[in-house]
Design a protein that fits this description.
Blueprint (H helix, E strand, L loop, with lengths): L6 E6 L4 H11 L4 E8 L3 E3 L2 E5 L11 E4 L3 H14 L2 E4 L6 H10 L4 E4 L5 H16 L4 E8 L9 H14 L4 E6 L5 E9 L2 E9 L3 H14 L5 E2 L2 H6 L1
Parallel strand pairs: 1-2, 1-5, 2-4, 5-6, 6-7, 7-12, 8-9
Antiparallel strand pairs: 3-4, 8-10, 10-11
Helix pairs in contact: 1-6, 4-5
Bound molecules: NADP nicotinamide-adenine-dinucleotide phosphate.
Length: 238
Amino acid sequence: MVAPPPIRLLVHGASGRMGRALLRLVAVDPRFELAGAITRAGGMVDGVRCLPAARIAAALPFDALVDFSLPAAFDTALEVCLQRGIALVSGTTGLSPAQCKALALAAQSIPLVCAANFSLGVAVLHELVARAAAALPNWDCHLLETHHVRKLDAPSGTALALGQTIAAARGQAPHYLSLRAGDVVGEHHVQFTGAGERLELIHRATDRDIFARGALEAAARVAGRAPGLYALGKLLLG
Ligand SMILES: NC(=O)c1ccc[n+]([C@@H]2O[C@H](COP(=O)([O-])OP(=O)(O)OC[C@H]3O[C@@H](n4cnc5c(N)ncnc54)[C@H](OP(=O)(O)O)[C@@H]3O)[C@@H](O)[C@H]2O)c1
């Protein structure tokens, strides 16, 4: 059987911690070919020549854009995907309500996968907290998230997404707590407390490659699909 042609990827936010992980993983994954890389100012990143964001329209043809940048950079990524009718996989967190609205609208024109956390473990954690919240609606519920000191948004996008899952299951959002400490990749700790007992569900990320791997899986599955907003859990697990 002839192997399908590689999926051409444009990496947006290539100089960041996530972007560098993506460049490294794409380089050794035969499913993909790097079509280009974008940073704010352009220049070289780990041997890859990057286009500045202002020149993104000049990027070579690509089949999916993988974006791990900042909210201020996100609109440009969405716009180029809309202009070309190409899939967008975005892990950028801290998007504004207007940006979330633009995403929902864009799903009518292009295939999209957006997730605050691309790890498989967190996809399963959503299922577990939904069950616990539905079974224990009157217990106190706290959600503590811990991340490295350079993370800008709080609570984390993952915490807010888990909070939405909890609220949908028990009609009430959890109490959020955020810690910024050292180089912690990411921890989410959901605690249900009743009289005399406590249930704790914890996810710890120790290697940020899990997010890059999840995003690449999403790109492989969503490139070329019909327009729509595809749920990560369904794409990865279903
Ligand atoms: N969904 C998930 O699973 C997941 C996991 C980890 C992180 N994240 C999120 O992913 C995002 C990136 O995280 P990170 O740790 O890689 O951040 P980072 O190290 O701060 O990198 C940010 C990247 O965005 C680029 N950028 C900033 N402004 C830009 C602009 N105007 N146009 C184009 N590019 C621009 C930066 O380029 P310059 O170097 O040129 O400024 C850099 O490449 C954050 O929102 C973070 O919360 C999501």
